[in-house]
Structure formats: structure tokens, C-alpha cells
Amino acid sequence: MCGIVGYNGKNKAVNILLDGLEKLEYRGYDSAGIAIRDKEIEIFKAKGKLVNLKDKIADKELNGTCGIGHTRWATHGEPSENNAHPHSSNDGSITLVHNGIIENYHELIDKLKKHKYKFYSDTDTEVLTNLIDYYYKKYKMGPIDAINRTMVRTRGSYAIAVLFKDHPDEIWVARKDSPMIIGTNKDGTYLSSDVPAILKYTKKVYYIDNLEAACLKKDKVIFYNLNGDEIEKELKEIKWDISAAEKEGYEHFMIKEINEQPEVIKKTINNYIYKNKIDIYKSGITEEELKSFKQIYIVACGSAYHVGVCAQYVLEDLTRIPVRVEIASEFRYRRPILDKKGLVIIISQSGETADSLAALREAKSQGIKTLAIINVVGSSIAREADYVLYTLAGPEIAVATTKAFSTQLIVFYILAIEIARIKKKITERNYIELIEELENIPYKAKYILDNLTRGIQKIASKFSHTKDAFYIGRNLDYAISLEGSLKLKEVSYIHSEAYAAGELKHGTISLIEDNTLVIGIVTQEEVYEKTISNLVEVKSRGAYIIGIAAENIDVSKISDFALTIPKTNKYFYPSLSVIPLQLIAYYITIDRGLDVDKPRNLAKSVTVE
Ligand code: G6P
């Protein structure tokens, strides 16, 4: 949540900052601001999307080569120009941008008020600027001392970038539980909350750890620990391709990312399967350990949680290990009783989701092994988990996840097949058959994109004014309904619900009336007749039915609009049925004229509770 950027080097900072903020807008878009240092520090802010800030500074000559920027997702204080970052200390000595939340800000404000500091915004951020200023002036021991004292005094999560008036040509940064990377090239040094913002300029980055700080000079970066001692950091290379963070001719990132699915699914499969053999052991986990787990807990948020729901069906069925799936924000506060012989799996695209990170720490504190399925290399969850299996989705920019979701599913299939093999729950022949069919998924996904997109685009316009939608299915079809429904509601703002088809009659069916949109997913052979009966029940109450069914199941008689997906193994259907569901959400939203990549009130990386 919130994105921060910074640049200190030979070139003009303004374009680098705006460019970076554009790439980070998925982290928040309530307001944006930059501070550029020429002789003096100049601050510009605007409410709303980045374009408003760009308009505001369009006629300004900004030659400074050092600056910081921010795009905001409001936590404390409404979205307004006054609450937008950067914030300055009372006398302008300190200018700062911040991502995260300061939990003890009331206490800190009281302390600072006693020292005559005044507060002009409703944010928790302003307290940081003044607290740094307070320590800087009180102890007169320089920026690192003031920053470290502030970190010690502050509770919460933060990544900050700070300009000290007395220290031209330097940007100071620090972090705790909010992401930040630092890049370098021959033209200068860069900081950002996330890789896409600096990918255009450099692939060489440093990861800064919790409670560490750094000083970005024009030609080098100096790192410090909480004692103020200089520390060494290793320069790492990012593997992502620059083009992956650009729209490349697509109208929106969401549709580009939907279309990238066959390729990233294939990449992820190839990363773990070679010549009909699964290898997940480079993560460090051993066969023996995998065999020993008596219970699996899957913990995640949002769409990643839906991956967990799908995975529960597949893992339990294939491996016969009991699986429990939990929403991370609930898991962390319910004092979970965990089986010491269990495994906690955290799923997260960003690797920074605050609740998922807290769930991981809860599991570790109970001495349970943790495995993370993560897309962003070097992210907090990836660094703290015992083992990591990466998804190879590349940078995902649209707020609503699509391709990361699909690669997470793939990693779970691979994990489930491998555990089933080790525990001898499947034969060698089943193992090979499952692998071979999994390797067909990218081609079947491509077939769906090539053949179903146009029809969905047409039907979507019919539903752009609908008020409610219901997604129903059984077993894995229910699991994927959850994702289809979330996708629609988060981007189109149409109310939608996913229901286990058999549960409809216990209440929700009373909402069905003439032309209510019901999307039925029917791929699971063992239960398909029962789902069809449920579809008949809603049809006879006037529902308009979009049926999404496997090739061998005929839903055309019951559906007003039927979509057929290729046949596959029962476990893998979610990877195929999710594609039409994503396309339905995308095209309905486009028809409604909404910003599909940046839905209101949402942020891609949720680093606050
Ligand atoms: C946000 C995103 C979702 C995502 C969820 C979890 O709500 O909009 O698309 O599923 O966070 O994010 P994570 O990075 O942990 O997968």
C-alpha cells in the first residue's frame, strides 16, 4: 500500500520519479506528490490519480537531480492534497515520504506537542518527519542517529525516504515490515517500494532488511544497522524482463496479464518439472520432510486464499493429508492450535501482505515449518519462510490478480502430485499421467483465450448494468466460483456472491428473480448432475444462466449462454475455468467505462492490517 520512489544521480529527477510513480500506482492512487531538490527542496502534491500531479507541474522547470515521490492509499486521514506526501517537519528541515502505518502515533504526537511541534495534516506520517527533526536537533549526531532513534521509538510498519535540508545530495531511507528496494547504475541510485518502478533503469538491486537504514549518494549507497554501524549488502540481479512491466499494445494491464497466462504457467511448470520428474527440492525442503507432515495449513488473503481453497480439494484428495485453509487476518488473531508435525503454507503474490506475513510469524513462533509460494523474489515473506517455491508470473501490475493466481495454482498441483508420489498415494503411472496433463494446461489455456474471448466480449455488454451476480459450483467448481465472483465485484463494482451450488436453497435462492445473472461452473464429473439440477432450480425462477462446462458435459440446454472448456484431469479444471471468469469480469468492467487496472479503494499490495 502506498508506493514510494526516489532518485539521486546525474539526470533530472522529475521524470524518473513520475515514471516510477506511474508504475507504482497500483499500490495506491488517492493522491500523489514529489519533492525535488535543486538549491531548495520544492514539494508538489495533488489529490487523485497521478495525472493530476503531472498536470500541476507540467509548466514547471524542475532541474533538480535528487528527489523522492509518493502515491498514496489513504489510511490515516482522507485522500486530500493536505494529507498527500511528501510531508515536512515544522521548519522544513526534514522532508519525508512513508509507506505503512505508525501504530503509536497518538503517543508520539503528544510527546512532540510538548516540544511545541505543530501538526497540519491528519496523517500518521507527519509524526515521523517531526520526530526525526526532534532527534536530529536534540542530539546533533547526524541523519543516521536521528533515523535510528526514531525507529526505536516507533511501532508499526514503515518504509521511509527522507531528505535532510542540511545534507544535500543525499536521500536517507529506512524500513520495517514495508517493502523497499534500492537500485544503482552509472547514472545514480534509485529507491522504490517495488521492482517495476526501477526496472527501466536498472536490474541491479539491494534488499534492505528490517530496522536497517541507508544513505543514497549520487554514486553509491551506504548501509547501516540500528547501532549506526556501516554494514555490507550484496548487490542482486532482478530476473524480470522490462517489457513485462509495460502494456505492450494492450489497452489495460489486466487483459495483457490474462493473455500472458499460457506463457507464465508454462514457465512455472518448467521451473519445477523436467523430463517427467518434479523437482521442488532446490527450495531446501527434503522428501523426508514432505513425507512427515501430518497436517497442512494454507494461509493467505484475497485471491491467494481462493488458490488455497482449490488446493485444499486437490491436496486432500491426492495426498490424504488433512488440509485446513484460512484467511490470514483471522488466523493470526484466533490463537491457532497448530500440529507440531504440520506444515504452514503461505501464498502471496507480493510477499508483503501484512496479515500473511503476520500469519507466517505466528506459525514460526509455534515452531511449525513454513513454506511460502511467492511471486516477488526478495520480498519479506520469501525472506522469512523456511522454504520458498516461486511462481514465475513476472511483474503483475493490474490490481486484480490473474496471472499470479494461475501460477500459484500450478505450484500447488506440482506440490500435491509430488507429495502423493512420495507417500505412495499414486502409482508411477498416475504420476506421469498427471505431469503430462499438467504440461498440456498452457495449450488448453491458450485455446480458451483464442476461442472464447470474442463471445464473452459480446455477452458482457448485456450485463454491464446488472446489479447482482451469483456464481455457483460444487467441489473445485465452487472453489473457483469464489475467485470468479471476487474478480467481478472488485473491478466492476457489481455485487456478486459465490455459493456452493447445494447451499443455494438454504437462503440465497430467495434472491433469484427474472434475469438475475447466475454463472454456473460445471466441470467435476462426480457432481455435475447435481449442479445441473441446481441450475434448473434457478432457471425456473427466472435466472439468466451463463454455463461454463467441460467439453464432455452438456450445459447448453439449461444455459442462456454456454461456454465450453477443453477436457482435462479433474484437478486441473480451475486453471481453465478461471480464464472465462476473468474475461467476464474484465469485459463487463470495460463496458461500464471503469478503470479496470485500478479499482476504487483497492491496492495491490496490502501492507497494512
Ligand atoms: C490484494 C490484491 C489481490 C490479492 C490480495 C493478496 O487484495 O488486490 O489481488 O489477491 O491482495 O495479495 P498477495 O500479494 O498476498 O497475493
Description:
This protein is α/β, with parallel strands linked by helices and 609 residues long. The protein folds into 3 domains: 3-242, Glutamine Phosphoribosylpyrophosphate, subunit 1, domain 1; 253-439, Glucose-6-phosphate isomerase like protein, domain 1 (Rossmann fold, 3-Layer(aba) Sandwich), CATH 3.40.50.10490; 448-597, Glucose-6-phosphate isomerase like protein, domain 1 (Rossmann fold, 3-Layer(aba) Sandwich). Strands 3-2-4-1-10-9-11-15 form an 8-stranded antiparallel beta sheet, with helices on one face. Strands 5-6-7-8-12-13-14 form a 7-stranded antiparallel beta sheet. Helix 3 crosses helix 4 and helix 14 runs parallel beside helix 17. The longest helix is centred in the C-terminal third of the chain and has 35 residues, at 428-462. The radius of gyration is 25 Å and the shape is globular. The protein starts with a strand and ends in an 18-residue tail after the last helix. 6-O-phosphono-alpha-D-glucopyranose binds next to helix 9.
Mean model confidence by pLDDT: 94
| Beta-strand percentage range | 15-25%
Low-confidence blocks of residues: none
Give a list of the ligands.
6-O-phosphono-alpha-D-glucopyranose
Name of the CATH superfamily of the largest domain: Aminohydrolase, N-terminal nucleophile (Ntn) domain
Query: How many strands, what sense, and barrel or not for the largest sheet?
Result: 8 strands, antiparallel
Q: What is the level 1 CATH name of the largest domain?
A: Alpha Beta
Total discrete domains: 3
Q: What's the overall geometry?
A: globular
Widest beta sheet: strand line-up: 3-2-4-1-10-9-11-15
Question: How many individual helices?
Answer: 17
Q: Total number of β-strand segments? A: 27
CATH architecture of the largest domain: 4-Layer Sandwich
How far apart, in Å, are the first and last alpha carbons?
Answer: 11 Å
Integer-rounded radius of gyration = 25 Å
Structural class label: alpha/beta
Helical coverage, percent range: 25-40%
